[in-house]
Amino acid sequence: MGYWDLPEGNACVEKTWITTKFGTALGLVGSAYHIVAFTPESALAGLQRATNTTVTMATMGAIFGMATCLSAQAREAPDDPLNYFVGGCASGIFLGARTHSAITGTSACLALGTLGFFTKVAKMEGWRITGPPKL
Length: 135
Fold this sequence. Notes:
Blueprint (H helix, E strand, L loop, with lengths): L11 H26 L5 H33 L6 H18 L2 H24 L10
Helix pairs in contact: 1-2, 2-3, 3-4
C-alpha cells in the first residue's frame, strides 16, 4: 500500500513509516553521490558522512509524515494542502536546527513547505508532469 492510498489524517504511524523509508532511500542515494563526487580521506570518514546524511534525511521524512498527519487531525481538514505546507516547513526547521543556521531553517521551511503544498494540490487536481497529455 502506498502513501496516497491511506486516508489523510488517519493511519499516522503507517504514513510516517512510508515517509521515513522514502527519506532513508533519498539519504542513501544522496550520500552515495556525495561520496563519489567528494572522496573522503578514509573509509571511516565515508561511513560517517553516509550515516549522517541518511539519518538526517530519514528524520526529515519522519517529521514530514507526522507533522502532516497531526496537522490534518488537529485542524479537522484532512484534504487541505496547508497540512503539507506544515509538514514541509517542520522538516525545514529541523534541517535549520541540524545545521545551526536560522537562514537555512527559514529557507528550507519555505521551500519544503511550498513543495509539499504544490505536491498535494497537484495530486488533488490531477496535474501531470510526464506522459501524454490528458484530453
